[in-house]
Every structure is written in structure tokens, then in C-alpha cells.
From TrEMBL:
Originating organism: Vreelandella malpeensis
One Pfam family, short name: NAD_binding_11
PANTHER family from the UniProt entry: 3-HYDROXYISOBUTYRATE DEHYDROGENASE, MITOCHONDRIAL, 3-HYDROXYISOBUTYRATE DEHYDROGENASE-RELATED
The 6-phosphogluconate dehydrogenase NADP-binding domain, residue ranges: 4-161
Protein name stated in the entry: NAD(P)-dependent oxidoreductase
Domain 3-hydroxyisobutyrate dehydrogenase-like NAD-binding, chain residue ranges per copy: 164-282
Keywords: NAD, Oxidoreductase
Top-rank taxon: Bacteria
Residues passing through the membrane, by range: none
Length: 290
């Protein structure tokens, strides 16, 4: 029998994931606190429900901005801890605070439900095409149970440990991405000031050990092209960097470079603005080369 799914959070990521799962043949209901989001997905053929009228399904897939939103969906009255059928699975695809995720995972288990953190990468395009990358934190038996859903949504899945582990590795990943955007921008700016075109510099970097996903994808796709339409905002990256910093501090682990990256991303609240595409962090650095 095919698993039934409720997707909670119908933004660019959650909405596209819901449509992808529907196209794969699953019975999917979408929900969002914003009526406009529900109407937009309903117009694309998705069954929708208001937050106060969630159906009983096998899986509740969350795509929400912060851990606070995830906690509210679970613990509010009535939240999923109270209304989800016993044995159903909570999948959190948000980028969340690992300590909160571990606390919630325990409450989920005590309520007779199962937990899986599954933060994603690949942006709205990956969500729409079913080609996301997923970092999985939870029990192997839970992963096996929902594997058809994960396979419909993603091109690559990596199980990194127990509950909360997926969110730990996601924060580590986003820290590196944020740092690479800055370091690659500085390298390209240095080359440009010395008379080397950005495209030529990037080709050289990508043939050597300095390459990264940022130099291979972000720069040509969104920065050099001037499109800046990745679907991920500066505000969300700043939030993730603060979570990474807080996680390190909670572990009493001094990471001075991480703090420098956090500070740099928060240096100017207007350039880039929180609502701007996160790749815009490179713009002021590259402008200095002109």
C-alpha cells in the first residue's frame, strides 16, 4: 500500500516537494498557515488542508523556516504530537537547530511516532525535479520504511547518524558554502584586479584543488551570470550560520574562522539584505576589483 503524506509548509521548497511526490503517485495533502500558499498549490492540483484540519496520514513532511516553527507544528494545540496517528513518521526537511531536533525526536518517540531529520540541498529546482540531496538523521528502520518517499524526492541520500545528526551535518555544509562564497569571491577579485577574467579564473580554479561546488555551480550559475535567483535567501544563510556558531559554542568548541564568517555575513544588513539571494554576498567583494 502506498504511503500517504501531508506536507506542512508550502513555500518554494515544500510546495515543489509536494508536487513532486504527487507526480510520483503518492496521495499527498499540503498545508500552510498562509491561505495564499494553499490556494497556489490547490490551483496546481494539490489537495490542501488548513492547519487546524490536518488529515491522518502515514507521513508528515515538514518544510519550515526555523526550529521554532517545527516545534510549534508538533507541540501547538492541537499539534502533531497529539493528532498524528500512532506509528506515523515525522520527516523534518528544514534546516533546524540539532539540539532542538534531538529534544523533539524524543518527544515524538514518547508520543508513539517516528522521527527522521532530512535537511535538503538543491534548491527549488531540485525539489521540483526530485533531484535533491538529503542528509538523514534517524534510525535505519525508519529510513527503510519511508525510502520510497525519499527516493522520489532526491538523487542522493546520506545517512549520517541518529536523530539530529542530519541537521548537524547540514549546518556544517552551509558553513562551508558560506565560507567558500567569500573565499572564492576574494580569489576571483584578486585575479580580476590582475587582469584575468572571472570566467578564466574560475576555469583554472575548477581544474585544481581550490575548486568547490561554489566555484563550479554558484559562480557560473548565479553570480557571473548576474541572475542571483537560486531560491535561497541571505537571511536563511545568516540564520544557519548563527545556528552553526551556537552549536559550536554549546560544545565548548572554539572555531575562530566560523566566527569570522558569521561576522562577515552580518557586517552589513543592507548589502546584501536578508531577502536578497544569498549569492549576493560575493557582490561587494567583486565590486572592489573594478
Amino acid at each position: 500500500m502506498s504511503l500517504t503524506i501531508t506536507v506542512i509548509g508550502l513555500g518554494q521548497m515544500g510546495g515543489n516537494m509536494a508536487l513532486t511526490l504527487k507526480a510520483a503517485g503518492f496521495a499527498v495533502t499540503g498545508s500552510d498557515v498562509f491561505e495564499q500558499a494553499r490556494d497556489r498549490l490547490a490551483s496546481q492540483g494539490l489537495e490542501v488542508a488548513a492547519p487546524e484540519a490536518l488529515p491522518e496520514t502515514d507521513v508528515y513532511l515538514l518544510s519550515l523556516p526555523t526550529s521554532a516553527h517545527v516545534r510549534e507544528v508538533l507541540e501547538s494545540s492541537p499539534g502533531l504530537l497529539a493528532i498524528a496517528p500512532k506509528g506515523s513518521v515525522i520527516i523534518d526537511t528544514s534546516t533546524s537547530d540539532p539540539s532542538v531536533s534531538r529534544m523533539l525526536a524524543q518527544k515524538v518517540a514518547e508520543a508513539g511516532l517516528a522521527w527522521l531529520d532530512a535537511p535538503v540541498s538543491g534548491g527549488p529546482k531540485g525539489a521540483a525535479s526530485g533531484k535533491l540531496g538529503m542528509l538523514l538523521g534517524g534510525d535505519e528502520v525508519v529510513i527503510e520504511r519511508v525510502r520510497p518517499i525519499l527516493e522520489a524526492m532526491s538523487a542522493k541520500r546520506t545517512h549520517v547518524g541518529g536523530p539530529g545528526s542530519g541537521h548537524v551535518v547540514k549546518l556544517a555544509n552551509n558553513y562551508l558554502c558560506a565560507a567558500h562564497l567569500v573565499t572564492t569571491a576574494e580569489a576571483v577579485a584578486m585575479a580580476a584586479k590582475a587582469g584575468v577574467a572571472p570566467e578564466a579564473c574560475l576555469a583554472g580554479l575548477n581544474s585544481g584543488s581550490g575548486r568547490s561546488a561554489v566555484s563550479e555551480v554558484n559562480f557560473p550559475e548565479w553570480i557571473v551570470s548576474g541572475r542571483f535567483d537560486s531560491g535561497f535567501t541571505t537571511g536563511l544563510m545568516r540564520k544557519d550560520l548563527r545556528l552553526a556558531r551556537d552549536a559550536a559554542q554549546a560544545l565548548d568548541l572554539p572555531l575562530p574562522l566560523l566566527q569570522m564568517v558569521v561576522d562577515l555575513w552580518h557586517e552589513n544588513a543592507d548589502r546584501p539584505h536578508d531577502r536578497d539571494d544569498f549569492n549576493h554576498i560575493a557582490s561587494p567583494i567583486l565590486d572592489n576589483a573594478h
